[in-house]
Amino acid sequence: MLALLVAACQPADQQPGSDPVGLGPDPHSFSNHDQVAVSHLALDLEVDFGRQTLHGNVTLELDRKGDVNHNRLVLDSRDLEIHDINQVGADGTLTPLSWRLAGADPEQAYLGSALVIALKSATDRVRIDYTTSPEAFGLQWLDAAQTTTGRPFLFSQSQPIFARTWVPLQDSPAVRYTFEASIGVPAKLMAVMGAAGNPESIRADGRYNFTMPQPIPSYLMAIAVGELAFKSTGPRSGVYAEPALLDAAVDEFSQLEAMIDAGEALYGNYRWDRYDLLILPPSFPFGGMENPRLSFITPTVIAGDKSLTALIAHELAHSWSGNLVTNAAWRDLWLNEGFTTYFESRITEVLYGERRRLMEATLDYQGLVAELEELDDAEQILARDLAGQDPEQAFNGLPYDKGRLFLDWLEARFGRERFDAFLNRYFDDFAFNSITTEDFLAYLQRNLLESNAGVVSMDQVRAWIFEPGLPEFAVIPESDAFERVNDWRQRWLAGEVELEALPAGKWTVSEWRRFLLGLGDQLDLDDMTALDQAFGLTASGNVEILYLWLVRSIETRYTPGIERLERFLLEVGRNKFVRPLYQELANREWGLKWAREVYQRARPGYHPLTRQAAERALGLN
Ligand code: BES
Ligand code: ZN
Q: How high is the mean pLDDT of the chain?
C-alpha cells in the first residue's frame, strides 16, 4: 500500500478522512469505482492560450454500487489546481462538500494524487471547479509561431493515464461514462472533440458544444483547438486539418469511407455514427490515436501516394477493438493493440491486397524478433503484470505484434470463416464493456475452443498469453517479395550488380524498408553517396524510408543525411522516430554532443512525452 501525505483538509460535517489513500481496483488509478462510479460527466471549460490553461468545471454524475452508504468518491488528478467542490442538487443548488487532495508518491509520480471527496447521503452529482497546469502531461500547447496558420494550437493525449492531468475523474479504462461538453475558445479558432457535435466551420462566438452518447473510458477523452478547416470524404467521414494541409490530407485519405465499409463487413456495424480524422501539427507524439469518432493523426503519414494508410486502418480498427471492447486495465493492453494490429492487416488486405498485407506482417514480425532480444522474460508476456510500474512501459511492440501473431495463429487453426464469426460475436457480446484477459479467455473457451474440440488446447492458448517468447507452433509470416529484395541487396553488397540494375523504381515502401533494414552497419560513405545519387533518399518524402535512411546516416556520419536529420528533429515530434534517432546519436561521442545541442533548440516544439523520451535517451534527466 502507498503511504500518502495529507496535503489539504477542510472541516465539514462529512469528513473525507485523513487516512492514507490506497490504489483502487486498477493498479494505475486511485478511483474507488467498485463503490461509487462516475456514469456521466459534463465539462464546462475555457481555453486560455495566454496562460496555457483550461479552467472551468466538471460535473460528475454518480452511480453507487450495492451499498448506497458509500460515503466517499475517490478521483484521480495530476497537476490540477482544485478551487471548489460542491454537491449539485436536483434544482441546481450548490452545497459545499469537504475534500482533500492526497500528496503524490514520489516513487510513482505518474499516478498523480487522489482527490477524496466526502459524499452526503443524497449526493448524486458533484461539481469540481479547477484549472489545469501549463505543464499538464496530457496537453500540448503550441504558440502561434509553431503552427502553419500563425495561430496557436492545443491538443490532448490522454492514453494511458493522462486524462487526469486535464480533468479530475476516475482514470481507469474499467470505468465508462457518457459526457457532454461546452468549450469556449478565443476568436478565429475551432474546438473539436472525440465526440458528436464537431463543427464544419469556425464559430464567431467561440463556443462549441459536444455530446458523447456512447459510454467511453477516460483514456479516450480528447480535445483539440486551432485554426482548423473541414472537408468531407463521404457520408459519414471527413478530415479536419490546418487549411494549408487539408487538400493533401483529403487526397491521401480519400479511401476513408471504403475503410469503414471494409471494417463493417469484417466485424459488424460501426457503432459511433461518424468517423473523422484530425491531422495534427508534426509535434504530435504518436502516429495515431484512436479517439472515438475523431482519430488524431500525425501529418507525417501524408506521403502523397497512400503508402502509409495502414495507420488509418489501425486507428479505425480501434473503433471495434479498444473503443467498443476495451481493456479493463493496462495489463490487458494486448486486447486493444493485438486485436487492432490483426484487424488493421485484414482491412489492409481488403483495400490493397494480400501481397501488401504479407509484407507489412513480415516487417512487423521482424521488428518483434529484434525487440524480443531486448526484453526480459517478464516483459515478453502478453498479460504482463504492471502493478507498481508506469503503464507507458507496456507500449512497446509486444502487445501489438505478439498479440497479432496469436490471433493469426487462431485464424490459421480455425479457418477464417469460423474465426471471423467468432470475432463478430465477441464484439457484439462485449460491446461498450471493459474486459480483462481472463474474461477473454473464458469467452474463447466457451465460444470457440469447446465448439471446435481438438483444434487447439487451452494450454497452447495460455502459452501465448502467459509465457515469454513465441510458442514454437506460431505461424510466421513470410513474403516472397522480400526474398527478392534480400537477393538484390546481397548482390549489390557483393559487387555483383550496379545500383542502376536494381528494380527499385517498382518497390513499395515495404520493400524499401526491407532493403534499408538489411543494410544496417554495412555501409561506408561511398555507398551512402552512391545510394543517395541513385535514389534521392535524403530527399525522400516518405517518413518510413527517410527514418531508416537517417539511421544509416548516423551510422556512417553521412553529412547530407545529418543535415536532413537536424531539420527532421526540429520539425517532427513523433516518438517512434525521434526517440530511436536520439538513442542512435547518444551511442556515439560526436552524436551525443551534437544531439544535445539540437535538442535544446527542438525542445520548445516538443510534446511533454517527446521531451521525456529524448531527455532519457540523451542522459539529460
Ligand atoms: N493507441 C495507440 C497510441 C498510443 C500508443 C497511445 C502508446 C498511448 C501510448 C495507437 O492506436 C497506436 O497504436 N498508434 C501507433 C500506430 C500503429 C499503426 C501501430 C503509433 O502511433 O505509432
Ligand atoms: Zn493502436
A: 95
Q: Which atom of ligand 1 is nearest to the CA of 287?
A: 21
HEC letters along 270-285: CCCCCEEEEECCCCCC
Please tell me the predicted confidence (pLDDT) of residue 37.
96
19-29 per-residue burial string, b: 16 or more CB within 10 A, e: under 16:
eebebbebbbb
Pairing status of strand 153-156 against strand 139-142: antiparallel
Distance between CA atoms of residues 378 and 331, nearest Å: 12
Strands across the sheet with 223-226, in order? 139-142, 153-156, 223-226, 190-193
Q: Kindly state whether residues 51 and 173 are assigned to the same domain.
A: yes
Residue type, 117: I
C-alpha pair distances (Å), 531 with each of 493, 511, 534, 556, 577: 12, 15, 5, 13, 22
Q: Which grid coordinates are listed for 161?
A: 493515464
Residue nearest to atom 18 of ligand 1 (CA): 311
**CA 544 – ligand 2 centroid, Å:** 18
At 192-213, the pLDDT tens digits run: 999 999 999 999 999 999 999 9
Q: Ligand 1 test: best mutation among 162, 286, 300, most atoms within 8 Å of CB?
A: 286
Residues 136, 237, single domain; the answer is no
Q: Return the amino acid letter for 225.
A: V
Q: How many CA atoms lie within 13 A of 356 on its CB side?
A: 18
Q: Are residues 221 and 233 in the same domain?
A: no
What would the pLDDT profile of 480-511 be if each residue is shown by its tens digit? 999 999 999 999 999 999 999 999 999 999 99
Confidence of residue 395 (pLDDT cuts 50, 70, 90): confident
Check 227, 252, 315, 349 and give the catalytic one. Answer: 315
User: In testing the pocket of ligand 1, which one of 219, 314, 364 has its CB within 8 Å of the most ligand atoms?
Assistant: 314
Nearest CA to ligand 1 atom 4: 289
Residues 292, 342: one domain?
no
**Catalytic residue status for 354:** no
pLDDT digits (tens, 9 = 90+) for 555-595: 999 999 999 999 999 999 999 999 999 999 999 999 999 99
- Domain's final residue, options 466, 495, 522: 466
Ligand 2 center to residue 339 CA distance, Å?
Answer: 9
**Whose alpha carbon is nearest atom 22 of ligand 1?**
287
400 is catalytic: yes
pLDDT at 65: 86
Residues 400 and 522 in one domain: no
Task: Kindly state the DSSP code that residue 66 receives in the 8-state scheme.
Answer: S
What element of type H or E holds 149? none
**C-alpha grid cell, residue 93:** 443548488
The reported pTM is 0.96
**CA torsion through residues 169, 170, 174, 175, sign:** negative
Residues with CB under 5 A from ligand 2 (ion): 337, 340
- Say yes or no: 235 and 218 in one domain: no
- Segments forming the whole domain that contains residue 364: 330-466
Ligand nearest to the CA of 220: 1
| Nearest atom (ligand 1) to Cα of 344 | 18
| For ligand 1, mutation pick of 137, 279, 289 (most atoms within 8 Å of CB) | 289
Ligand 1 binding site (Cβ under 6 Å of any ligand atom): 159-160, 286-290, 311, 314-315, 318, 337, 395, 400, 576
Burial class from Cβ neighbours inside 10 Å (0-12, 13-18, 19+) for residue 79 reads middle
